[in-house]
Structure formats: structure tokens, C-alpha cells
Design a protein that fits this description.
It contains 7 helices and 12 strands. With about 280 residues, it is an alpha/beta fold. The termini are far apart.
């Protein structure tokens, strides 16, 4: 898959020197406008929940009448991770977010960081460590919006990792929830390497490319978005990570493949559960 108009930048990762991209082909305001256009074309409703650095903080929701699972996806919380919002845009434009679910998308949580191509926001705050007691206007506005939403059946937070040599993910789910991690990893394996490390971010790997951390939120001094969601909004939380040292188009493709495979596995599991319920009636 190719994304037209990319500006490739030569940079050095923490591990080795390769061709990598920290910037997007669009400014944050341009990307926000493109999201709004694509979302409207797909029947989404725009919900502006704030503004920062002259760029809107937008959510996009799409609700279909009848009983549907509620699925949340976010990206762009770190401004030097352009592949996730571009992948989310590609998924949106392809019509992946269909009538099988009610959808909640937050594509660009850190527009100032995105414009500056830096991890933190313009004030130097890492937004993905700010969800316990928000100090940033972006996270405070996001949390206020989340509190107005119903519980989510599934959440996917899309990220990149500058130290990774391949794709990996975190899976944190309640007992009885369908496991999606292995399906996503196997789908990505066909298009991109899986991180071979046995320890990632000081956490043991359960199986190649999959971390299933044991988290005690009560002792954490800082909360990432995924932990906040897990504690307050969803029984099934995933954080997906592509390797930033790889070419941008490859990372976008890996994320698109992972999300698509995970969503299809989620829908299939719900159909199976519904069929079993009907058989037992």
C-alpha cells in the first residue's frame, strides 16, 4: 500500500541507522480536515471536544440502530508517531468501520506534537502518561469526552516504538473476552517482521510479539491512555506498536493489517457466541 506525497526523512533510531519517518506528509490541521472529510463520507458524526494550538480535538462517532458492539480506536497521542493516524485514516477511507459495530474514533490526540514531530505536546507533557490526574488540556478534554460515552466492548490504541525491530502489541482483557492478539500478529507476520525480543519495555513477552502485562493500576504513578480505558471503559484493551525505524508506508500497512484482522476476529467471535446462545435456548 502506498500513501501519496510522503516526504521521507533520514534519521537515526535508538538501535541502528535506517530510513525512517518522524513527520507526516500533512500538517496536523490538514490531517484533521482530511479526517473530517473522510468521516462525513462514511456516515460519521464529528464531535469536537476541544482545541489546542489552533487545531481541533475531534472525535468521530457512528451509531447503527439495534444491538451493536461499541469499538473505540485512537491514535496520534505521540506527535513523532505518524503511522497510526495515517493508518486510521486509511481504514476510515476504505470503509472498514461498517454497520457491524458502533464506532468511536479519536485520530489525533496530540496535534501540537504532531506539528512539531515530537513525542510530547507543546508544553513538554507526555500525554500518554497524563491520564491519572490530567495536567494537559488535551487529556483533560479527552477524559471529559470519554466520560460522556457508553462503555466500549473493545479498545485499540495505535502507537509506534523507536526501539522495536518489529511489530508487537499489548493485550489486556477480562476472562471470557475473545483473545485477538495472536490473530493480529499472524496477519502482520505476512507483511512485516514481528519483534523477536523476549523482553520489551522491561516486560516479558508471552509469545512472539505479544505482551500480556499484569498491571496494578493502584500503584502506578502515571497512567497511559490504555490503562485509563481498561480501568474505566472497556474489558478488552489492546495497544499496537509498529517499529518506527521501518519505512513509513510499511508501518502504515502493518497497522492497517493488524487492525483489520483484529476487528474481523472480534466480529467472528461475537457471531460464534451469539450462535451458541441461540442453540442453548
Amino acid at each position: 500500500m502506498k500513501i501519496a506525497g510522503l516526504r521521507l526523512v533520514k534519521t537515526i533510531s535508538k538501535t541502528f541507522c535506517v530510513s525512517a519517518v518522524k513527520t507526516s506528509p500533512w500538517e496536523s490541521a490538514e490531517l484533521a480536515a482530511r479526517f473530517a472529510q473522510a468521516a462525513a463520507a462514511q456516515g460519521f458524526r464529528l464531535e469536537a471536544f476541544g482545541e489546542h494550538e489552533n487545531c481541533p480535538l475531534n472525535a468521530f462517532t457512528k451509531r447503527t440502530p439495534g444491538a451493536r458492539p461499541r469499538i473505540y480506536l485512537s491514535s496520534g497521542i505521540h506527535g513523532d508517531e505518524p503511522a497510526p493516524p495515517l493508518a486510521l485514516l486509511a481504514l476510515l477511507e476504505r470503509g472498514v468501520f461498517d454497520e457491524r459495530a458502533n464506532w468511536f474514533l479519536v485520530p489525533l490526540l496530540n496535534p501540537a506534537g504532531f506539528r512539531l514531530a515530537q513525542r510530547e505536546n507543546a508544553s513538554g507533557i507526555d500525554l500518554n502518561r497524563d491520564y491519572l490526574n490530567p495536567a494537559s488540556p488535551e487529556v483533560a478534554a479527552h477524559v471529559a469526552w470519554l466520560r460522556r460515552q457508553p462503555p466500549f466492548d473493545l479498545s485499540l490504541c495505535l502507537h509506534e516504538d523507536w526501539e522495536s525491530t518489529g511489530f508487537y502489541l499489548y493485550e489486556v482483557i477480562n476472562p471470557g473476552e475473545p483473545p485477538l492478539a495472536a490473530t493480529m500478529v499472524e496477519a502482520v507476520r505476512k507483511v512485516s517482521p514481528i519483534d523477536p525480543a523476549t523482553i520489551i519495555d522491561e516486560r516479558p513477552v508471552s509469545e512472539p510479539g505479544i505482551i500480556r502485562p499484569e498491571i496494578d493500576a493502584a500503584i502506578r504513578e502515571t497512567w497511559p491512555e490504555a490503562l485509563y480505558l481498561r480501568e474505566h471503559h472497556t474489558p478488552s484493551s489492546y495497544t499496537l506498536e509498529t517499529p518506527s525505524a521501518h519505512p513509513l508506508n510499511d508501518r502504515i500497512q502493518s497497522m492497517v493489517v493488524a487492525v483489520t484482522a483484529g476487528l474481523e476476529a472480534f466480529h467472528a467471535a461475537r457471531l460464534d457466541a451469539h450462535a451458541i446462545t441461540n442453540e442453548s435456548v
